[in-house]
Amino acid sequence: MGAKFAEAKISAIVLTGLAALATLVSCNTEGAISPSLDNLKSLEILELRNNALSGFIPASLGNIESLNYLDLNDNMLTGTVPLEILSRLVTTLDELNVPHNDLDGTTRKSVTRVMGAHSSAAAAALFTGFLALATLVSCNTEGDILYAQRLAWKDPFNVLQSWDPTLVNPCTWFHVTCNNNNSVVRVDLGLAGLSGPLIPQLGGLSYLQYLELYGNELNGSIPAALGNLSSLVSLDLQGNLLTGAIPDSLGAISTLRNLRLYGNNLTGTIPQSLGSLTSLVKLELQKNSLSGTIPASLGNIKTLELLRLNGNSLTGTLPLEVLSLVLVGNLTEINVARNNLDGTVGSTGLRVTAIIQDRLKISG
Ligand SMILES: *[C@@H]1O[C@H](CO)[C@@H](O)[C@H](O)[C@H]1NC(C)=O
Ligand SMILES: *[C@@H]1O[C@H](CO)[C@@H](O)[C@H](O)[C@H]1NC(C)=O
Ligand SMILES: *[C@@H]1O[C@H](CO)[C@@H](O)[C@H](O)[C@H]1NC(C)=O
Ligand SMILES: *[C@@H]1O[C@H](CO)[C@@H](O)[C@H](O)[C@H]1NC(C)=O
Ligand SMILES: *[C@@H]1O[C@H](CO)[C@@H](O)[C@H](O)[C@H]1NC(C)=O
């Protein structure tokens, strides 16, 4: 977060034609309108036209009771005009000027709409135009991503009710955990009754360590963009309705320790790239519709303790490279039953062979 504006008796701020507004930005990455501007209790005129402001229009501007002229024309603002600001049109705000932005439902540089009204009729007309709206965040990139995900999901039990995009960051939202830098590190929404897709933007949660979404009714495919979650330790999507292939890109998450994708309807082959997951401890892909052979590359995962591939349509044989992990690594359970592996019949009788050996020496 950037500058906080002290409460001050400033009645007009006019900053136009600037490329960057260091004083008004509320975070260190992009120029966004600072929500703390609402500390300017005497502000009557706020004119920020023709800048390069991006992000959402902070709802908190609606708290400035004295504001009568708000001009944000010609920026790169996204989202919608907050209801908190629109409702000022019925009371104190004489002019609201927001064309030439990238606001939802508008086409950049099409119609110029200058809104001015002290009449509730005009305000009511505006409300209908903006009603579908989500409210807004300012410079809340991770919050934007999670809020977009909220909008993409059906949430019959309202578990996402606290996901309020007008807050500066999502760290106080239920089921979201941040680190000391206010970056999201956990999303815990197992057994939450959610349905709908995983949005690719989730791949932008750079600090995310735990994505726990098991036991919902999520459908669609696993976005390849999740391979960009370079801090992820656990990806638990088991027990959903996911389809499509396991993205190769997941093999890039070198921090991953648990990959639980079982109990969906994933198809395609097990990506060879998963052999690059050299921190992986649990790989659970059972009870899907995976086909093809078991990649020998999985034998690279010396950290593996549990390998469950049962209940798919896998063919070929279990590679010796993988089997050898039982002898030289920490692998203590391999389950490949109920596939179409060579020389087996997917049937009731399971062949279980125990390998009983002494504890391995700690090497090095
Ligand atoms: C917080 O950010 C600082 C500076 O970017 C970084 O050095 C530090 O490692 C971060 N801490 C956490 C917990 O991510
Ligand atoms: C996911 O489920 C919803 C609701 O049943 C359906 O409308 C949508 O088409 C499904 N999406 C996919 C990709 O299967
Ligand atoms: C991962 O991030 C990079 C860099 O931000 C981006 O270019 C790429 O498209 C992302 N990958 C996916 C699969 O979204
Ligand atoms: C899983 O997907 C395959 C291929 O799309 C389809 O034939 C099969 O019926 C699905 N199985 C279930 C249990 O939905
Ligand atoms: C195997 O497990 C032991 C005990 O948990 C651990 O110390 C060791 O690092 C593991 N080895 C590998 C290759 O992960």
Automatic annotation (TrEMBL):
Its main location: membrane. This is Uncharacterized protein. Keywords: Leucine-rich repeat, Membrane, Repeat, Signal. Residues 199-314 form the Disease resistance R13L4/SHOC-2-like LRR domain. The lineage of its organism: Eukaryota, Viridiplantae, Streptophyta, Embryophyta, Tracheophyta. Residues 140-179 form the Leucine-rich repeat-containing N-terminal plant-type domain. Gene3D superfamilies: Ribonuclease Inhibitor (3.80.10.10). It is found in: Membrane. One of its GO terms (cellular component) is membrane. It comes from the Eukaryota. Residues 1-27 form the signal peptide.
